Give the backbone structure.
Amino acid sequence: VSFSSLLNGFCQRNRIEDAIALFGQILELGYKPNVVTYTTLIHCLCKNRYLNLALHLFNQMETDGIKPNLVTYNSLITGLCDSGRWSDAALLLRDMMKRRIDPNVITFTSLIHGFVKAGKLFEALELYKLMIQMSVDPNVFTFTALINGFCTHGRLTEAKRMFNSMESKGCFPNVVTYTSLIHGFCKSKRVEDGMILFYRMLQRGLAANTITYTTLIQGYCRVGNPNLAQQVFNQMGSCGAAPDIRTYNVLLDGLCCNGKVERALVIFEYMRERGMDVSIVTYTIVIQGMCKAGKVGDAFSLFCSLDSRGMKPNVVTYTTMITGFCRRGLIRE
């Protein structure tokens, strides 16, 4: 078995310490690792967030006279962007272009995603323009990242325009693309537009996931329509997208905020009976709902039972309870 294939095996199994030790042995024995060996280890280190070590190895390549290739750069750029180090990733893009290594769709998409995540939509769009200038075709992940960026900044017209232009470029939206735009509509209180998009997605043969449904539930709750929110929630099981704890929390919060505390309590009891992984967030939502509905005594009883349920109140829980007492004029409590 060659050193390279052994190293590759360690990296595929994420046995990082073994991979690093083997690489050290290769150097000690006087062998000169090639670009593939270096890139294999750099990719593994980036995937597991050992970015400083990966960058050290990248610099060592230079010292050893080994020229990095496109895969080396993409591994580092993706790793840096995933860890929020977009400025370091942008420097690497400049470096690779200086060396006349042409970035591909993976390079650009990683950077665009990183900039969008950092709230730097302008920079992401500049990269998109550069990508088009260089005749690199965007893929579904590129478009989804940009649509998500537009939606986050409330630029829905541009998000919709980009969404509609995808198909003309031979790129079809996936469930994440649809959900990003649905989230944008719901955030801007345009839930009906979100629902139109939801049905269009189903017509295209795409199955909505838990995040899609949770987004719509939150959207209806935001516009003061908890009944429709609950209807969407009730559809989930039969549509193959089981609600998770976040879905339940969103629905409970929506019901409580819209004066449907009794209904929220029924769902809360159901969650506890089913032995669901109820967190302090869930309890805080219910306590807050009870306080808002004037059931401060019941809220305090639930608050006092937290310790016996293995729950530790957080700052929000305490603040909620204190606010509840103050509203009722129970300052001493």
Notes: The chain has a mean pLDDT of 92.
